[in-house]
C-alpha cells in the first residue's frame, strides 16, 4: 500500500480538497487567468427592459420604493404593471452572439463574463428550478448563456458565468431570512441546483459569484460546492472563481479577489485580484437615461488597465446590452479603442508580471510591467521636453531601449547613480503608434 501511495505521489495523483477554506484556499490558481489580464463583463437581464436608473431597478422600485422609480413607473406604465410583465419585452431580437464574440475579440479580451442570473432571479438559460422565469420560457425563448458560450469558444475566448447567490424577492429566500437563516430552503431548492447545472451544462472557465453579502458561507453551502468544483466537476483543473461566497469572504477566501466593485489597491497585493468596473460609471446594466458625463473616456479606461496590470491585477470592463441584444455604439467604440491600444502595447500587458517597482510618481504618471528579461515602462503623459526620465531601471552594457509600435532603437544616457534619460521619437502626434499611454521596452536592465 505504501509503495502504491508513493507511486501515486510520484506520478502526480490529483489532490483532494476538503470543504473548508484552509484547504480550498491552498488550490493554485489556474495559470490562464493571470496571463489573460483583460476581460469584458456583460450585464444583461430583465433590468435591460425598463433600462432606467440602474440594474437594481426592481429593488429601487419595489424594495426601497424610491420616489423617482415610483414616478418613472406611473409615468410610463399602466396601473398594476408588475416586474414580471417586463419578461415578454426582454426579446433579445437582435442578439447575434457571433457579432458579440467578434467585438470582444477585436477589443483584445481574453475572457468574457456574462450574467446568467442577477439579483432579480431571472435566468438567461433554461434552468429547471426557474420555471417560467427564464429566457427559454419567457421573452427571447432562447438559451442566451449557451449561445454566447458557443460563439466565444469558436474564437478561443474564455467563458465566465456571473451568478447571484441571493434573489431579492424569492419566497423561499425571504422565508429563510425570516427563520434567522436556520433553514436553507432557498439554497437547497434554487441556488445550489443552479450552480451545479451551470457547471455541468456549460463547463465555464470562471464562476463570478455575487449576491453573497446577507448570509455567511455556511448558509450558502459555498465550501461544499467549491470542493466538488475543484475535485470532481468537469472543469476541476481549469476553472477559476472569485471571492464572493458569503459574508466576510470577500478579499479573504476564494480563487482570486474582487474585494469590492471598482477595487483599486494603492500598492502591490500579495494575492491575485481583479478590478471590475463599468464603461457607464453610474450603472452596470444598459440605461436609457445614460449621458456622456458618466461615460469613461478612452484614456481613463486605458490608464485603469495599465495601473491594474502593473499592480498584478486583471481588468474586467463592463458593458450593458439593450433588451434587444444590441451593444450601443458608445460601448463598441470604447471596447474597440482598448483593442486598438492592445494591438500595439499588448506585449507589455498579456502574460506580464509586476516588476520590482510598480510605478514612478512623476509628471508622466509611469507604470512598469515585466516579462522574462524585459521591463516595460508605460507612461501616460508625454514629457514636454521629449525626454523620458526613469529613476528605477539600471542599464547594463547590453541594454536596448525601444518603443512599442516604432521601429529602431531609442537614444538614451545614464550616468552611474543617475536617472535613465531616454530621448523619445521626434514625431507629430498623428505619427505616434497610439494617442495615449506609450510603452518603452527595456531589454537587459537591472
TrEMBL record:
InterPro entries: FUC_metazoa-typ, Fucosidase_C, GH, Glyco_hydro_29, Glyco_hydro_29_CS, Glyco_hydro_29_N, Glyco_hydro_b
Gene Ontology MF, one: alpha-L-fucosidase activity
EC number, as in UniProt: 3.2.1.51
Function: Alpha-L-fucosidase is responsible for hydrolyzing the alpha-1,6-linked fucose joined to the reducing-end N-acetylglucosamine of the carbohydrate moieties of glycoproteins.
Enzymatic class: hydrolase
Domain Glycoside hydrolase family 29 N-terminal: residue ranges: 10-347
Protein name: Alpha-L-fucosidase
Coiled-coil intervals: none
Complex and partners: Homotetramer.
Every Alpha-L-fucosidase C-terminal domain range: 358-443
Gene: Fuca1
Organism: Nannospalax galili (Northern Israeli blind subterranean mole rat)
UniProt-listed GO biological process terms: fucose metabolic process; glycoside catabolic process; lipid metabolic process
Subcellular location: Lysosome
Example of a GO cellular component annotation carried by this entry: lysosome
PROSITE patterns tied to this protein: ALPHA_L_FUCOSIDASE
UniProt catalytic activity: an alpha-L-fucoside + H2O = L-fucose + an alcohol; a neolactoside IV(2)-alpha-Fuc-nLc4Cer(d18:0) + H2O = a neolactoside nLc4Cer(d18:0) + L-fucose; a neolactoside IV(2)-alpha-Fuc-nLc4Cer(d18:1(4E)) + H2O = a neolactoside nLc4Cer(d18:1(4E)) + L-fucose
UniProt site positions, description: May be important for catalysis: 276
UniProt entry keywords in alphabetical sequence: Glycoprotein, Glycosidase, Hydrolase, Lipid metabolism, Lysosome, Signal
Family: Belongs to the glycosyl hydrolase 29 family.
